[in-house]
């Protein structure tokens, strides 16, 4: 095979209590990419559609991750990358990691699958670091593995796959403002109070248990963030109003998606997810901020090959 077309999904990182460690994969939104072998050695980004992003491999997250893998694999040919960007950069649903993970996923297919998903996550993390100025894998892991993932450690990289309850849906609202992950990280405190840490690790543990046992009540009681949300929510207009409206419409809970500005709500069942969508649309409809919304099943598969 000389060319592979892929769907590279959007992802929700943090999932309220799991800053930098928890994430899940979305189904209804993602980028398309084409990766092609070239006779000329090297990594070449030859097409970018949708958003204005750098073509130089060293300045584009897709190129940085591809170069990290290329230097390790040392093939006697090169790769050309086309990016059809649908996920707005800086939207908080893993735009940069879709590109960083997508290029290495496609290259791995063309190389005959020499790397497993954890190794691909390692290369993708190098690209993600260009955008956020830190190596975190909580978007990359769900994009590559699908479903919910827990990044137990980044060095050495260890990723756990968490089962997804069948009837779990996500509703996303994306206010059209840009928040750069690097800036949203810079406002976070360097230290946290012990009482907040206790609440946070209790919620991470119980959220994982709730996911394993499809205990929606426990998932609902675990979707809290004592550490990051108080700081970042100030960057998102109408954040508390969205949370309140989503809860009233039946959501299990809501939180900042990644570093924002998108806000996710987890819901039991698609009907509730659609009701939540209508409710949160009303919150922003009364403002002068443009927004879009969507409902997504949790994508258990992650990246998809689209070749016929
Ligand atoms: N292929 C790419 N896709 C998305 N963003 C990229 C890409 N390459 C470089 N970037 C840069 O990464 C930043 C967006 O990443 P980030 O702030 O983490 O947002 P997101 O939450 O959407 O991933 C922007 O400055 C963008 O120019
Ligand atoms: N854990 C990171 C996740 C950033 O996600 P993104 O989708 O906003 O890139 C963080 O919260 O900084």
TrEMBL record:
Q: Spell out the molecular function terms from Gene Ontology.
A: ATP binding; homoserine kinase activity
GO CC, alphabetical = cytoplasm
User: Which Gene Ontology terms describe the biological processes this protein takes part in?
Assistant: threonine biosynthetic process
Q: What is its main location?
A: cytoplasm
Question: Is Hydrolase there in the keyword field?
Answer: no
Q: Which UniProt keywords apply?
A: Amino-acid biosynthesis, ATP-binding, Cytoplasm, Kinase, Nucleotide-binding, Threonine biosynthesis, Transferase
| Matching Gene3D superfamilies | 3.30.230.10, GHMP kinase, C-terminal domain (3.30.70.890)
Subcellular location(s) per record = Cytoplasm
Catalytic activity reported: L-homoserine + ATP = O-phospho-L-homoserine + ADP + H(+)
Give start and end of each GHMP kinase C-terminal domain.
Answer: 208-285
Q: What does this protein do?
A: Catalyzes the ATP-dependent phosphorylation of L-homoserine to L-homoserine phosphate.
By sequence similarity, the record places it as follows: Belongs to the GHMP kinase family. Homoserine kinase subfamily.
Can you name this protein? Homoserine kinase
* Protein species of origin: Formosa sediminum
Chain's gene name: thrB
């Amino acid at each position: 095979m000389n060319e592979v077309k892929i769907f590279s999904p959007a992802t929700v990182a943090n999932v309220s209590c799991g800053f930098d460690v928890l994430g899940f994969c979305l189904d209804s939104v993602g980028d398309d990419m084409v990766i092609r072998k070239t006779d000329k050695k090297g990594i070449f980004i030859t097409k970018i559609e949708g958003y204005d992003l750098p073509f130089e491999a060293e300045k584009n997250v897709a190129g940085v991750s591809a170069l990290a893998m290329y230097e390790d694999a040392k093939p006697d040919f090169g790769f050309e990358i086309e990016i059809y960007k649908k996920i707005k950069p800086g939207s908080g649903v893993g735009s940069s990691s879709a590109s960083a993970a997508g290029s290495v996923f496609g290259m791995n297919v063309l190389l005959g699958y020499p790397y497993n998903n954890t190794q691909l996550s390692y290369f993708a993390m190098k690209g993600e670091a260009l955008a956020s100025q830190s190596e975190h894998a909580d978007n990359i892991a769900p994009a590559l593995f699908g479903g919910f993932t827990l990044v137990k450690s980044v060095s050495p990289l260890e990723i756990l796959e968490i089962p997804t309850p069948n009837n779990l849906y996500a509703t996303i609202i994306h206010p059209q403002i840009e928040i750069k992950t690097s800036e949203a990280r810079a406002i976070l405190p360097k230290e946290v109070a012990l009482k907040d840490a206790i609440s946070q690790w209790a919620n991470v543990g119980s959220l994982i248990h709730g996911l394993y046992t499809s205990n929606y009540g426990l998932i609902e009681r675990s979707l809290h963030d004592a550490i990051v949300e108080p700081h970042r929510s100030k960057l998102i207009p109408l954040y508390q109003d969205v949370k309140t409206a989503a809860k009233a419409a039946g959501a299990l809970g809501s939180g900042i998606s990644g570093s924002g500005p998108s806000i996710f709500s987890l819901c039991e069942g698609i009907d509730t997810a659609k009701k939540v969508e209508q409710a949160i649309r009303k919150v922003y409809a009364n403002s002068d901020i443009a927004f879009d919304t969507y409902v997504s099943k949790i994508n258990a598969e992650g990246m998809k090959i689209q070749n016929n």
